[in-house]
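Fold this: Aminopyrimidine aminohydrolase
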Amino acid sequence: MSDAARSAAPTFSTEAWSRNAPLYEAIRTLPFNDALADGTLSQERFQHYMVQDAHYLIAFGRALAIAAGKADDPDGLVQFAEAAKVAVVVERSLHTEFFTRFGIAPADFARTQMSPVCHHYSSFLIGTAHAEPYPVVLAALLPCFWIYAEIGRDILGRAVRPNPYDAWIDTYAGEDFHEAVRAVIATTNRAAAAASADERARMHHAYTRACQLEWMFWDSAWRLADWPV
C-alpha cells in the first residue's frame, strides 16, 4: 500500500471501535454497571469485582512490561514501562482503599484465587504478549484502557451522587486516565499503520477477544462466579 493510501485509510482504532460497537453497548448495559451507576450494586458483588481486578492488574502490568520490551521506539518503551508501573502501583492503591473500607484483609485477598474469567483473561494477555508481535500485543491491551475510560465517563453521566463507588467512578472518568488512554490509542494506531495485512487482521482478532473478556469479567462479578468444581 502506498503512503497516500495508508494516510487515507481509517485508523485501526476507528475500525476496531466500529466493528465492536455492539460489544461495547453490551458492556455498558450490563446489570453490574447499571447498578454501579445508581448506587445499588451490592457490596458483595463489588468486593468480588475488586478482588478479581486486583489479581488481573498484576497480569496486566506484566503484559504491559512485555509490550515495553517489544516497543519499536524509545517513546513506546517509556510509555508502556510507565503504564506497567501505574497498573501495579497507582491503580492498586484504589483497590487498597476499597479493601480497607470493606474490611478485606491482605490475607483474605491472598487466599482468594483467580476466578475462571480472571484466569482466562490474564492468561490471554500474558500469552499474547509473549507470542505475538508488538502491534498485536497493543491491540490486545487496548480494550482494557479504552473501554474502562468510556464506561467511566458513561457512568459518571448517569450516576447517582453521592455514590458508594464514587472513587471508582472518578478514577476512570477522570481526565488523567483519559489522557493516558488517548496516548495508547495513538501508539496503537501508529503500530497498525506500519503492520502487515496479516498482523492487522490479528490485531482485530486480539482486540475483539479482549472486548469479549471485558464483558465476561463484569458479568462474572455480577454472578459472583467461581470455579464450579
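The chain has one domain: 12-222. The two ends are 52 Å apart (CA to CA).
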